[in-house]
Amino acid sequence: NVWCAAGKALFSTREVVDRVKQTMLNKVVSHNQLILPQLGATGVSAHQVKKASGFKVIWGPVRASDIQHFISADNHTDKSMRQVTFSTLERTVLIPVELSHLPKPTLWVLLAVFLLSGIGTNVFSLGDAWYRGLMALTAYAGGILAGAVAAPILLPWIPGRAFAIKGALSGVIVGLAVVLLFKSGLIWMESLALLLITVAISSYLAMNFTGSTPFTSPSGVEKEMRRAIPLQAGAVLVAIVGWVTAGFLN
């Protein structure tokens, strides 16, 4: 989205100027006005665009669907065009986008999970790789469900402001459900490992929604990620060590 791109300097003054020049926009239109989305203002300097390209920046509405009405109203906006909402439906439509990024890393996770799950007193057991691997993959899937599906849908009702915390809390609930599902075949170390994996993945995936909200800032997101990612990575490491160690204790 534009807000996220502007915060990351991908939708920037230089990018706008370069695109204007590359498309030779001055030869396409007779006016010198450029309508840019309101949420791109954090990354674009209007006066620098004017100086470099000759085009005057007019800040348009938040949503692209309002552009036609904005133009017909002589470039004037009403209150609704300037307001950002983040309803349940608007959060839900983002879920497929997040899930679309997961197939490739999931292939590597599948390989790692089955290899690590088979390690034990017999050096490597295909039976354990399959049986324990399915449990670990269930925890992985639970983390995805909690962080990429449940967290955005239930966002206003999950305690905490940081998305990493919201994701972790939803991950705890799903993680406990995973542990209860397999409780008869687990030792405590395996239970802890499954819980940590679910929580870490859920927390990480929930952070991906920070760039889609109307109440976060680039600096705040960066600060949250600097704090959360080391903890998430640490939880995954502890879970892996515990999971492999448990293979020698069963």
Automatic annotation (TrEMBL):
* Sequence intervals crossing the membrane: 107-127, 133-155, 162-182, 188-207, 228-249
Keywords noted in UniProt: Membrane, Transmembrane, Transmembrane helix
Q: What is this protein called?
A: HgcA
